[in-house]
Design brief:
mainly alpha, 11 helices, two-stranded antiparallel ribbon, about 300 residues
Length: about 300
């Protein structure tokens, strides 16, 4: 969330970070409840998830509209995405919608991808060792320009998002009748494609439930169908932040792995929670051990 705020929305939101985080958690946790038949009941009485949802939305609106006002008063390009949206002539309501989308989609998905990546690395020391070897070859803590020099780090993140895609399903409306096998999806019909299902299909991924970053060779990627892997969606509605997310995810994983060894606390399986995104069913607790590297001596062990 800090990265999203600093790079896309500007520094002015920094002091509201905790308020934004708590409100986003409410929105994501209560979203499913508001899609049930009880939603009308909640809405009529403004109780339970409906009341929490409205309060969270009001908090986010307060923060976003304040940011918009501050940017408009400044009247110049502050080098962030919000400045770009305002300079394009968008009305405030549309800018608000875009900013909230950035808040929701710009940090929750990457945070989930990194959580699952560490969860998998903690269970596969051979992959963690290979990742460390790649990072040790760098002269220092990875910098932004080093992302292209970290192919195995990218493979780890790619495989983590195959097994645990942060966006686990995507819906589309048919613009015309679509033949599908012996059936036809009628015009305006809604159909859902699940990244989770496709990413675990043994036709495209031998031993599909095994964590194997090494499978992502150029030959392997060229041999599979294009839509066998779509963590960011596809087509004209593909995630606008895909390239940003790859760059951010690779660097965050590399910087953390270069500084720390992560050891999982306990070995009980962690399940999944299928909300808007694919979250872990419980916190993934880790014990952190500081690595000895060129920029810092080896120190003590920390538990979080």
């Amino acid at each position: 969330l800090n990265i999203v705020c600093r790079t896309l929305l500007g520094e002015s939101v920094a002091h509201d970070m905790e308020k934004v985080r708590a409100s986003i958690d409410v929105v994501l946790n209560d979203f499913d409840l508001l899609q049930t038949p009880l939603q009308k009941f909640y809405e009529r009485l403004s109780i339970g998830p409906e009341a929490r949802f409205k309060a969270a939305r009001a908090t986010l609106d307060e923060v976003v509209y304040r940011m918009i006002d501050e940017h408009r008063q400044a009247g110049d390009d502050q080098g962030d995405l919000l400045s770009m949206l305002l300079l394009s002539g968008m009305p405030d309501g549309q800018v608000r919608d875009e900013a909230l989308t950035i808040f929701l989609a710009g940090h929750e998905t990457t945070a989930n991808a990194l959580t699952w990546a560490w969860y998998l690395l903690a269970q596969h020391p051979e992959a963690a060792a290979r990742l460390n070897d790649e990072l040790e070859a760098l002269p220092d803590i990875p910098a932004p320009e080093d992302a292209a020099r970290l192919p195995y780090t990218r493979q780890v993140l790619t495989e983590a998002m195959r097994l645990y895609p942060p966006a686990w399903a995507v819906a589309r409306r048919a613009l015309q009748d679509v033949p599908l096998g012996d059936d036809t999806i009628p015009k305006n019909g809604i159909f859902i494609m699940s990244q989770w299902v496709v990413h675990h299909d043994p036709r495209w991924y031998p031993d599909p439930y095994r964590f194997d970053p090494g499978r992502w060779t150029p030959a392997f990627e060229a041999a599979r169908p294009r839509m066998a892997y779509f963590p960011f969606g596809a087509g004209s509605r593909i995630c606008i932040g895909e390239h940003f997310a790859w760059h951010e995810g690779i660097l965050a994983l590399a910087i953390l792995a270069r500084r720390w060894k992560l050891h999982r606390i306990g070995n009980a399986p962690v399940g999944i929670r299928t909300r808007i995104t694919l979250r872990s069913s419980r916190p993934v607790l880790m014990r952190l051990e500081k690595r000895a590297c060129s920029t810092m001596p080896k120190q003590t062990v920390y538990a979080v």
